[in-house]
């Protein structure tokens, strides 16, 4: 995992992609927050988290030339993602801890800030657990040197749920603290 990550991050595209997406997030977070009825600063955090996820998951693997879409791989990807044995193995195996930790941590900031912005844990958790499925399908269709595997989905979903739980915990602590002081919590 670390060798792949070093190779991936040594390319100019990840930093450039994240920089562009961060600028878009900085410019768009207030209109997005206003439209969704979310708090602006946590919305920026959620959008930056999403930018990091997109950068780390949707760019081609190091040394992989771009090819055309491969729609024929959708069936094998669906089989890999929805095989109960593969999902159980992904949930219980920690053979490559570095990869697992990276895939889990990648989703925590996005969902944590989405909870603080929206205060809707059910919606955020539901969407966030499905986003890795879309990422896996996109990776395989793009023919970008990425594999469609259950481990990534499971680990990303674990990270998404951890971010949601952490966001709910911080939201409740903030609400209690403001209730003691007699203020309404910030939005």
Automatic annotation (TrEMBL):
* Ranges of residues in domain VanZ-like: 95-169
Query: Transmembrane helix: present as a keyword of the record?
Result: yes
Please name the InterPro entries in this protein's record.
VanZ-like
Q: Where are the transmembrane segments?
A: 12-29, 41-61, 100-116, 123-141, 153-170
Family matches, as Pfam families: VanZ
Q: Which key words are in the record?
A: Membrane, Transmembrane, Transmembrane helix
Q: Which domain of life is it from?
A: Bacteria
Official protein name in the record: VanZ family protein
- Species: Phytohabitans maris
Lineage per the UniProt record = Bacteria, Bacillati, Actinomycetota, Actinomycetes, Micromonosporales
